[in-house]
Amino acid sequence: MLAIIGGSRLAQLPILQITHRQVVRTPFGDPSCALTFGRIDSQNVVFMARHGYGNSIAPHELNYRANIWALHSVGVKRVLAIGSVGGIRPDMAPGMLVVPDNIIDYTWGRKHTFYEGPDRPLVRVDFTLPYDPELRRAVLAAAENSAVPCLDGGVYAVTQGPRLETAAEVLRLQRDGADMVGMTGMPEAALARELGLQYLHVCHIANWAAGKGASPERIQFADDALADGMAKVQALLTVFCAQ
Ligand code: HPA
């Protein structure tokens, strides 16, 4: 089964033909919301709104462990995680979709592992390539087949939030090698790896990162680019599920 995690701009997934909802509890607490099950084409899908259906849980307050555990516990094998980011690289303009190929984690204080407590074995999970290569290829192929423009590759910097970055912080991220910046990519991706799930981010560029673009003194979110971005995400998911 495929899981789709919707970001703050995608708390509902209109292309999903819903069959039922299920409340799932986990040893790590409650996930953000009940899981919504259904189909897109012939693909069985479970949808989760990362910030809750009311979009009320901030990035640093999400129970990432409960979310990923809940998906794993209902039989999910693959996760497509949608997230809004700010564009740092010049071609990462608002409205674009990007399938990143790596991550730099700047978050702190989040419950970031299942390997905790005295009676758990120490496991060093390989995270060299944080995204599943097979899933990356399949999503990029769907982008090509659906004629949805989608950039292939880029480094996703994950910041703590909930405030946006300063211009100086974005310059530092850029010097570190980051191409886009968001707040929810970690520890979600690492927790998925710990449970052996195939995981991939599909990022939607909502704005120029602080200090970038035509209005470097203030971040602007373009509402039309956002609506357009979500339409593109759904077109991409539709073709992906039909492949
Ligand atoms: N910074 C951090 N997170 C974000 C941004 C940003 O500019 N845009 C959307 N999520």
TrEMBL record:
Protein's pathway = Purine metabolism; purine nucleoside salvage
Q: Where is this site: Important for substrate specificity?
A: 165, 215
CDD domains in the record, alphabetically? MTAP_SsMTAPII_like_MTIP
Q: Where does phosphate bind?
A: 8, 50-51, 184
Q: What's a Gene Ontology MF term here?
A: glycosyltransferase activity
Q: Name one Pfam family in it.
A: PNP_UDP_1
**The EC number(s) this enzyme carries:** 2.4.2.1
The residues that the entry says bind substrate are: 183, 207-209
Q: Which domain of life is it from?
A: Bacteria
The chain positions of domain Nucleoside phosphorylase read 3-238
User: Which InterPro entries does this chain map to?
Assistant: MTAP, Nucleoside_phosphorylase_d, Nucleoside_phosphorylase_sf
Q: Which reaction does it catalyse?
A: a purine D-ribonucleoside + phosphate = a purine nucleobase + alpha-D-ribose 1-phosphate
Q: Which UniProt keywords apply?
A: Glycosyltransferase, Purine salvage, Transferase
The entry sums up its family as follows:
Belongs to the PNP/MTAP phosphorylase family. MTAP subfamily.
Other facts noted in the record for this chain: Although this enzyme belongs to the family of MTA phosphorylases based on sequence homology, it has been shown that conserved amino acid substitutions in the substrate binding pocket convert the substrate specificity of this enzyme from 6-aminopurines to 6-oxopurines.
What does this protein do, in the record's words? Answer: Purine nucleoside phosphorylase which is highly specific for 6-oxopurine nucleosides. Cleaves guanosine or inosine to respective bases and sugar-1-phosphate molecules. Involved in purine salvage.
Query: Partners and quaternary state?
Result: Homohexamer. Dimer of a homotrimer.
Protein name per the record: Probable 6-oxopurine nucleoside phosphorylase
